[in-house]
Amino acid sequence: MSDVEIPEVDSVSGTGVPIRGNDIDTDQIIPARFMKVVTFDGLGEFAFFDQRFGDDDDQKDHPMNEERFQGANVMVVNANFGCGSSREHAPQALKRWGIDALIGESFAEIFAGNCLALGIPTITASTEEVGALQAYVEEHPDAEIAIDVDRELVTYGADGEDHAIDAAVDTAQRTALTEGVWDTTALMKSNADAVREKARELPYVEDGQIPDAAD
Amino acid sequence: MSERTLYDRVWERHKVTELPTGQDQLFVGLHLIHEVTSPQAFGMLRERDLEVAYPKLTHATVDHIVPTADQSRPYAEDAAEEMMSELEANVREAGIEFSHPDSGDQGIVHVIGPEQGLTQPGKTIVCGDSHTSTHGAFGALAFGIGTSQIRDVLATGTIAMEKQKVRKIEVTGELGAGVEAKDVILEIIRRLGTEGGVGYVYEYAGEAIESLGMEGRMSICNMSIEGGARAGYVNPDETTYEWLAETDAFADDPDRFDELKPYWESIRSDEDAEYDDVVTIDGSSLEPVVTWGTTPGQGVGITQPIPHPDDLPEDKRDTARRAQEHMRVTPGETMAGYPVDVAFLGSCTNARLPDLRRAAGIVSGREVHEDVRAMVVPGSQRVQRAAEEEGLKDVFEAAGFDWRNAGCSMCLGMNEDQLEGDEACASSSNRNFVGRQGSKDGRTVLMNPRMVAAAAIAGEVTDVRELKEVTRA
Fold first, then answer.
1. How far apart are CA B253 and CA B258, in angstroms?
2. pLDDT over 90 for what percent of chain B?
3. Alpha-carbon distances, residue B222 vs B128, B186, B204 (angstroms)
4. CA distance A47 to B254
5. Which of B194, B259, B318 sits opposite A83 (nearest CB)?
6. How high is the pLDDT of residue A5?
């Protein structure tokens, strides 16, 4: 088995792009017709496609189309972001567009899990604080946003201003990101003997369904 | 923290160890895969030189992209053919059983698992599909996962998870005439919200749930995720066991059934189990529910007025305004009379045999409205055959419905079955998101299968209770 380097994600910094609205589902983030692919490559250009483009591929008003938000790597969202389908294509598309972290009021569970599996933090903060950050980013698209994952702190500012948000990062997510164990395959593979033991204990698993120990 | 619930028990029985993240490593008893979310995971395995650890606990089907009209190979659409070929190659190489269309066992993953007896009480079941919660109807702990997690499960037979809280949702009383499981879950989501279940697993209980057959329980557990809960379940009981006894797993092996039944009994929640939250809903007060908006939580009883955004909680108003604009509905009016262009009977929520039977009871002796194109997409090839044998196909076709082959179809528009332009669709599926059914201007109204049948005939959303059931000759 080849070793996979798993970087520690202690912090993310960069500029932001605000995406407003509650209950933004994964069908909006990446419409199903762009999922007829067998790899995730190239999904970035289809992120929020139907919000960004009209029938003739003409550009619509959308933050991701605006020049001033090109290069942003922190997406600032509202409540229940990423609800709906389990498609990892959604965070994969955002990542390929350039997103390294999301700050929002709340995230749907499967979406947040998929982000974690890609090393993308999903930071939560209050409605007021997220709203203030979205407004600030719109006023100051060049504002630097700094996320300290371990301290659960978001700071941002431009033109010498300095704002701070007391944010929250789920405990397991924080540990996984800061200690570089968010890619769990090798870690769990190392427990293969205990897994086989567990399988043997379960009445519904038949002996013939359990692989031999020799790996 | 919850104690002595089915969730706690199944979790403990499957916990391998605690990981450094504080998550638990859970053994996966059944891994279901399909063509959309698994190919990238097989690619990741190849990159890392890993093999599938538990191929015999893995089962594949093709459902999302499969054409429901002409299924001859190669598929007309190149992308669909490529995805199918990739799946065929991956399962062949790994030695994974495949409910291939040629086998006669193909269908939507959440229909075929239960009907083949793969889905059983007390199993942990995962699939790269959010509606995996369906399998909780049998007392399994079942939830959707992303592709990187599919890689984990393929490579290790396990998954890293954080334990959730448990909310018991007790639906008391008897459901009224014309009120179905679908209405119960739409009402639950309406009341608790689309993110009310985040961080929770839902245990559905109470007389109204217990008196449902397995198909109704599946419809409810299926849509747990629409309420934010990644998993939902019903404790196994005699209804569950009777269903299981008829499946492939046990029909010819009653000894195996007897061997496993004590385990199924042992994982049931105790009468005095502790829950993190309990919600009670009076099932006898419900009526058919339809959605007026673009989230499954934006529902309303068929005789009730569509809410005015200003009357909703502040955090719901903006979404409601945009939804009403998209749907072109008027607050204060009911959804009855909302014109529909398409009627879709299908999906992992409502495309099982009893769903089709009930809808056929409404359709029989009537004709689809001239302005409506109506289609039935059975949930599996087995459902399709059974329905054809008992004459349901003839009933639907006589009324003007298009009878198609099994697949996900217009629930998410990944094959040729799609809404066009701003068509409005009466749909027995699970999501009314903007763009969900293949057209970004399309409008989806979620409802139970009999309500879909009624809408197809009337050409508009209609209270099915006002139509008389016609007995088939």
1. 9
2. 98
3. 14, 11, 12
4. 51
5. B194
6. 86
pLDDT of residue B470 exceeding 90: no
pLDDT (tens digit per residue) in B124-144: 999 999 999 999 999 999 999
Dihedral sign from CA coordinates of B283, B286, B290, B293: negative
Banded model confidence at residue A4, pLDDT cuts 50, 70, 90: confident
User: For A108, which of B155, B157, B198 is closest by C-beta distance?
Assistant: B198
Cα torsion A82, A88, A90, A93: sign: positive
Q: How close A159 gets to chain B, by Cα (Å)?
A: 32
The closest CB to that of A198, out of B16, B151, B413, belongs to: B16
Residues A31, B146: C-beta atoms closer than 8 Å: no
pLDDT, chain B, mean:
97
Which two structure tokens, joined as six digits, stand for A149?
Answer: 């994952």
Tokens of B160: 């890293």
What domains sit in chain B, N to C, each tagged with a CATH number? 6-266 (3.30.499.10), 289-466 (3.30.499.10)
Is the predicted pLDDT of residue A36 greater than 60, yes or no? yes
A65 close contact with B: CB closer than 8 A: no
State if pTM tops 0.90: yes
R_g of chain A computed on alpha carbons: 20
A53 close to A82: Cβ distance less than 8 angstroms: no
Whether the Cβ atoms of residue B397 and residue B365 lie closer than 8 Å to each other: no
Q: Which tens digits make up the pLDDT trace of B78-113? A: 999 999 999 999 999 999 999 999 999 999 999 999
Q: In this structure, what token pair is assigned to residue A59?
A: 């550009």
